[in-house]
Amino acid sequence: MRTPARKRLDLTTFDGRIQKQGYHKVGAHSAAKACKYAKDSLMGIGACYKNKFYGIASHRCLQCSPVLQFCNLSCRFCWRLMPETKSGWLKMPPNFEWDEPTFIADGLIMEQKRIMSGFAGNEKVDKKKAQEALEPKQVALSLIGEPMMYPQMSKLLAEFHSRKMTTFLVTNGTYPNALRALTTLPAQLYLSMVAPDEENYVRVVGVTPSAAKAFWKNYLESLDFLAEAGEKTRTVLRMTIARDLNDSNLDGYAALISRGKPHYTEVKSMVYVGWARREERGLALGDMLKMEEIEKIAAELSAKTGYLVVDKHVPSRVVLLARDEKAAKMRMISS
Questions:
Q1: In a domain, 9, yes or no
Q2: Would 14 be classed as within a structural domain?
Q3: What's the number of domains the chain is made of?
Q4: Among candidates 171, 172, 152, 148, which has minimal Cα distance to 160?
Q5: Containing domain of residue 248, as a range?
Q6: Is residue 6 part of a domain?
Q7: Domain CATH code at residue 193
Q8: DSSP designation for 34
Q9: What is the 3 state secondary structure string of 35-84?
Q10: Packed helices 101-117 and 153-162: angle between N→C axes, nearest 10 degrees
């Protein structure tokens, strides 16, 4: 029986969607977008968990990605807008031409200024913060897609660092060789932790079982890299937990934490927003864990790993664990 041809999503349609959702595209494959908490910070009504946990100024944080259209996973709880079709994700075409790091950095910073300049006329916005927002100091490479698919990540990080900006890089861990090839590390390296073991990983990541098993091996390699990188930069494991999907086997999660030895572990509920609400994902509002449930899981992981419960951010339903007292005291980064 012949396999039906994969229908690819027209990127013109995708580009229209991202514009409607507030994404500002840069070049062929990068984008910036102001998050809710950047706006809240300007209005003086709150800030994101990165502010509470690490001291990042939310209104000066450039939320962006150098990989707008592509991701090799299709995690069921992912809220991000991606060019997803019934037959899968848009695949990277052969001989894809990547933009240069300097072009991307310049373009993302320019778009961030364009985004934030629109708040200056709002009477409710703090004028000092509005001016500061035009000069972003922090870069969160986590907006959409898998950033380690960009082949010049080291140079892109170096571009931001040359502008006196701190960088947070979030990866799904499926590109361990690309991680090991980094000659410039981010100020904080995040590795997503979406499952405690291979069996759960296969159910979560939304690709074929054979592909998922191969990615799981890659993930474990990336976890070993995280332990090594922790001697040179700050490292984090970020959990995303959905009810009855990946909220079991805490011993497995504890083993992964012990293997990766991150400075910090973020224990977080999935959020039922965006594309996490797509019917084919099979999730519901009740699959979000309550804050008290997240706190209970964090406490159990603390008991199993020796990590310390040091903070929480209720609006994001996330608890922060620190490896030890030293990590707890050194967690604030000036941005």
A1: no
A2: no
A3: 1
A4: 152
A5: 23-329
A6: no
A7: 3.20.20.70
A8: -
A9: CHHHHHHHHCCCCCHHHHHHCCCHHHEEEEECCCCCCCCCCCCCCCCCCE
A10: 50
- Local structure of 30: helix, strand or coil: strand
Q: What is the tens place of the pLDDT at every residue in 9-30?
A: 455 666 777 777 888 999 999 9
Helix (H) or strand (E) holding 308: strand 308-313
| CA atoms of 317 and 77, how far apart (whole Å) | 15
- Among 259, 141, 254, smallest CA distance to 190 is for 141
Distance from chain centroid for Cα 189: 10
- DSSP annotation of 3: P
> Do the Cβ atoms of 101 and 159 come closer than 8 Å?
yes
Check if the beta carbon of residue 14 is closer than 8 Å to that of residue 23.
no
What does DSSP say about strands 188-193 and 166-171: parallel, antiparallel, or unpaired? Answer: parallel
**Tokens read off for 233:** 């930069």
DSSP string for residues in 143-196? SSS-GGGSTTHHHHHHHHHHTT-EEEEEE-S--HHHHHT-SS--SEEEEEE--S
Cα 75 from Cα 170, distance rounded (Å) = 15
Contacts of 258 (CB under 8 A, 6+ apart): 305
Write the DSSP symbol of residue 21: T
Among the listed residues 17, 115, 128, the one whose alpha carbon sits nearest the alpha carbon of residue 64: 115
Looking at this protein, which amino acid is placed at residue 101? P
What's the rounded Cα separation, in Å, for the pair 26 and 256?
36
Tell me the residue type at 106. Answer: D
Mean pLDDT of 103-130: 91
Average pLDDT, the chain: 91
In this prediction the pTM is 0.92
* Cβ-contact 67, 29 below 8 angstroms: yes
Per-residue pLDDT tens for 202-224? 999 988 999 999 999 999 999 99
Angle between helices 250-260 and 291-305 (to 10 degrees): 60
Dist CA 59 CA 71 (whole Å): 27
Which regions of 69-173 does DSSP assign to beta strands (E)?
84-85, 88-89, 138-141, 166-171
Q: How far apart are CA 216 and CA 205, in angstroms?
A: 10
Q: What type of residue is 77?
A: F
In a domain, 309, yes or no: yes
Alpha carbons 133 and 307: distance in angstroms, whole number: 35
